[in-house]
Q: What sequence folds into this?
């Protein structure tokens, strides 16, 4: 059943007190602030300082008197005004920049009266820059005089603090003000926005640019503050419970959170809007993002038109999983899950305000009729935008109702972004429960058979619903989110992992990487074997999903990784030392087209791509991946890097680790190391290992030819001894072991014990002593030269040829 977006007028404002003045202010001032009371009966309009009178108007639906106030020139008007969530009577609070706060209420008598006046900054010298009301708490950000202690930035950049006081009714005409609690010391200038449960501290135009990319979410009910950098995708949670005396120095808070102070440009946001789901932000490109209360940030969708400068008006709101955005005179409705544009309407005015829905339990009968939509206020009246089914449609069958209800249930239960449809449930074998229930309604399956078939699935659903209830109640949230992520990853691994399922899996790994990896660890049944390697007992179907890449024409969106790359990235962050064993294990799995032996990129290159560019990736991890790949080019590349680093032992071990099935690769590594042996003497100590690496079919002539090719050029004539400080040249004595090994025939090539093993193993005998003939006395007169060379007391046996 297709829904249609409807825009229906609820009132022309004539039943509000002061209707004429209300229309006048809405039409004349586009920058007027509009607030709605928790019961929906009162409208508050506050004009900016310096605007014409009146600056404040509170209109009431019915016959009650309105509140209208004006401040003459020279007397500042309030900085902001808010309704207080008091169920007994309507009340509002006005706050000035000087720190003055006034509480007004409408009691039993006619009209409004002042209930309490107080100073938020009694010490003086402070200036209030932002105010918000959160569950009976008045929260403000004030600027104080900067201290002299060391700062992260300029002294004035961290001269603010965020404080709050409780506001509670006391009888018919009293107000109880709690003591002042300081949430943040030494913080930058923050804007304050409040939803029903959370307070958002957002950067402003005056925030120091060094922290202009950071925002905070304070959840009083949980006693926590979430520090978020949306552009970095980082978030950190800290305890902040003022009841227990918690407070934070903003500079100390940031110093303890790694990565948040990375140089980034400030957030360029046109409009902020708090919602029950989190904080919506609209940038100047027309993209709407949602910063969720748990710290995650996701893109909701992109508008058809982008805001034009800061002067353009924009308003954001949500209802029934739908995002409503009023940009100028255009109303766009987008699906919160998929970002798809559902409706686009052109309004008759560009000065439209979205009103917050009434608080639960405080609606009157008229508000109950408009429940489930958003209210729009303009000078033309009060309108409601919502979804309605067109009239005249046939009532759907029971089977159709089953699939439609199942769509809503699975959409709430799942983290996937795209919207489910009944057609997808009917033809997708993943969701068996609605198909079985539809078969029962058609009389095909008995209820007992259904219970037997779905017993395990129903048990999982019940456990999942109980887990969600614990999370909603705030019980042991950290363990609850971990368990929920494990359930979701296990469920996704049973799907085809294409499209939305892959996007969803990436989201889970980004939000809770440890829990997601734990689920994969159990699915693959990974265990270390004690030798630094991994083994797996998972069935081939699971490995097929892990190793499978993307099909042609079905490339994932930017930033979305296939499962193998996702696991490599997660391991690189959590346990980098297990990444090479995991890739080596993955290379032993699979079949044709799985990614391990298919025509695509080899697994080691897919893992290297996750490590980043060559200039930034870890050299140690890159070496391990190259050596463990078993690919000749990769192993040669790794050995070349080891040679450049002069890690001779490891380079030789890499060559010796290759079995007899890789003779060509061993030969190439030997030639590479032999070239280094010929150039310098730093490999002399590793000569026994080099002999073991020598190919058995290499002849002495070929060895000498290889060495001659790589000998360094001689710049000077050779000398018997090297000059002091220079490296000795290669000698025949060093080559003797290699030459004898290449020339030996039939000698077993066992492990070398020492440099002199060839002498110990030589089976030959010394050469015979040459015969000694008669000594002949040299004639001095005939051979003067020989006489001069003959040592004293010795004679040389020579033959006279003269």
A:
């Amino acid at each position: 059943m297709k829904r249609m977006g409807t825009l229906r007028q609820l009132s022309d404002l004539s039943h509000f007190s002061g209707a004429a003045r209300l229309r006048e202010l809405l039409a004349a001032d586009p920058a007027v602030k509009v607030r709605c009371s928790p019961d929906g009966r009162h409208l508050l309009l506050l004009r900016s300082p310096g605007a014409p009178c009146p600056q404040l108007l509170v209109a009431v639906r019915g016959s009650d008197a309105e509140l209208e106030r004006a401040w003459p020139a020279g007397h500042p008007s309030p900085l902001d005004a808010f309704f207080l969530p008091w169920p007994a009577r309507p009340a509002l609070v006005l706050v000035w920049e000087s720190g003055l706060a006034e509480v007004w209420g409408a009691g039993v008598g006619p009209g409004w009266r002042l209930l309490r006046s107080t100073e938020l900054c009694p010490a003086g010298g402070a200036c209030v820059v932002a105010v918000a009301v959160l569950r009976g708490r008045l929260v403000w950000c004030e600027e104080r005089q900067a201290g002299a202690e060391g700062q992260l930035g300029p002294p004035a950049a961290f001269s603010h603090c965020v404080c709050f006081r409780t506001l509670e009714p006391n009888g018919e005409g009293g107000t109880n003000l709690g003591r002042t609690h300081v949430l943040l010391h030494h913080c930058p200038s923050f804007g304050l926005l409040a939803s029903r449960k959370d307070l958002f501290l957002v950067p402003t135009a005056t925030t120091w640019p060094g922290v202009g990319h950071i925002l905070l979410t304070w959840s009083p009910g949980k006693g926590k503050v979430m520090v978020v950098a949306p552009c970095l995708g980082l978030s950190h949670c800290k305890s902040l419970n003022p009841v227990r005396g918690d407070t934070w120095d903003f500079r100390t808070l940031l110093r303890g959170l790694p990565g948040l102070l990375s140089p980034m440009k400030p957030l360029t946001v046109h409009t902020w809007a708090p919602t029950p789901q989190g904080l919506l932000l609209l940038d100047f490109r027309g993209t709407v993002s949602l910063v969720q209360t748990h710290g995650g940030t996701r893109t909701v969708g992109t508008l058809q038109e982008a805001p034009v400068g800061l002067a353009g008006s924009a308003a954001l709101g949500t209802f029934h999983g739908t995002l409503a955005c009023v940009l100028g005179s255009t109303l766009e409705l987008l699906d919160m899950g998929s970002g798809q544009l559902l409706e686009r309407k052109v309004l008759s005015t560009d000065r439209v305000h979205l009103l917050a829905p009434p608080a639960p339990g405080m609606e009157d009968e008229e508000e109950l009729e408009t429940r489930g939509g958003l209210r729009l206020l303009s000078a033309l009246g009060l309108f409601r935008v919502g979804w309605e089914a067109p009239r005249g449609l046939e009532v759907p069958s029971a089977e159709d109702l089953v699939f439609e209800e199942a769509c809503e249930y699975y959409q709430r239960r799942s983290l996937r972004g795209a919207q489910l449809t009944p057609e997808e449930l009917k033809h997708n074998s993943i969701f068996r429960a609605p198909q079985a229930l539809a078969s029962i309604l058609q009389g095909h399956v008995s209820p007992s058979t259904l219970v037997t078939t779905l017993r395990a699935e129903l048990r999982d659903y019940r456990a999942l619903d109980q887990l969600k209830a614990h999370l909603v109640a705030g019980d042991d949230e950290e363990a609850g989110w971990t368990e929920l992520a494990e359930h979701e990853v296990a469920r996704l691994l049973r799907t085809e992992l294409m499209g939305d399922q892959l996007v969803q899996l990436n989201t889970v790994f980004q939000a809770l990487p440890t829990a997601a990896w734990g689920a994969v660890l159990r699915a693959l049944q990974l265990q270390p074997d004690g030798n630094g390697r991994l083994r797996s007992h998972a069935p081939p179907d699971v490995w097929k999903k892990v190793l499978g890449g993307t099909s042609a024409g079905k490339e994932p969106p930017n930033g979305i990784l296939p499962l193998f790359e996702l696991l490599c990235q997660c391991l690189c962050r959590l346990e980098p030392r297990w990444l090479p064993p995991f890739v080596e294990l993955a290379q032993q799995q699979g079949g044709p087209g799985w990614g391990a032996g298919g025509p695509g990129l080899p697994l080691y290159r897919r893992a290297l791509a996750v490590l980043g560019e060559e200039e930034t990736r870890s050299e140690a991890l890159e070496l391990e991946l190259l050596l463990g790949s078993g690919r000749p080019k990769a192993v040669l590349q790794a050995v070349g890097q080891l040679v450049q680093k002069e890690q001779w032992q490891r380079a030789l071990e890499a060559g010796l680790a290759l079995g007899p099935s890789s003779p060509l690769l061993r030969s190439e590594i030997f030639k590479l190391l032999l070239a280094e042996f010929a150039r310098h003497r730093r490999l002399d100590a590793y000569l026994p290992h080099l002999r073991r690496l020598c190919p058995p079919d290499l002849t002495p002539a070929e060895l000498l030819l290889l060495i001659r090719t790589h000998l360094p050029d001689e710049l000077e004539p050779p000398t018997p001894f090297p000059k002091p400080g220079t490296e000795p040249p290669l000698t025949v004595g060093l080559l003797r072991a290699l030459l004898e090994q290449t020339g030996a025939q039939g000698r077993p090539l066992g492990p070398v014990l020492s440099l002199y093993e060839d002498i110990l193993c030589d089976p030959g005998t010394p050469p015979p002593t040459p015969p000694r003939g008669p000594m002949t006395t040299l004639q001095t007169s005939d051979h003067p030269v020989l006489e001069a060379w003959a040592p004293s007391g010795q004679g040389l046996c020579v033959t006279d040829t003269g």
User: Anything to note?
Assistant: Residues 760 and 795 are 37 Å apart (CA to CA). The chain has 24 helices and 33 strands.
